[in-house]
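Researcher: Good morning. I'm working through a list of sequences from a screen, and I'd like to move beyond sequence-only analysis. For each chain I'm collecting a predicted structure so we can compare shapes side by side. This is the next one on the list. No need for commentary yet; just the structure.
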Amino acid sequence: MGGSQSRTRKLTVENDDPTSVIKVSDDVVQRIKNNSQEARPAAPEPSYQQAPPQQAVPVQPMFIYEPSVTSVQLRQANLAELKKNDHYWENRLKNQQANHQKINEIMEAEYKKAIEEMEVTEKTKTPSRALPPCQDAKEAVMRCYREHANEPMKCAKIVQAFQQCVDSKRASLIANRG
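Model: Good morning. Structure tokens for this chain:
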């Protein structure tokens, strides 16, 4: 009959010790050393004789220290992360500034275009230096008041004609806007 290989066992240890030290007995250390240094020979066939009980060996604790992170390593890690963060925000700020610059250029172009359109429409709507309406009726009223300075009621019909002229011009302007 052939020998069978032993199964690998896994052991989980919960460590409640705040110093992160795991205590291992000498027997466990010897078994780990023996398993790693030499291959196990094939297991002998089981015999039907019982072996005498072995005496308990006193266990001496063995301390294995885990490597710890030093303050210099922590500082370097923090500085590296801060530099990475600074680089990220610098790039983001540059992108935002570029986007705002593009938006400002577009808005300024639109503003100039709107001003040009307003200038064109103003020129077409009102003739430049146009005389006020009813100019001849106005001069007639002024002449009448000069001639009849002491009797202004004699100019009432001329003033009424001037008022009708102004009202008709005002009505035509309002009708043209609407």
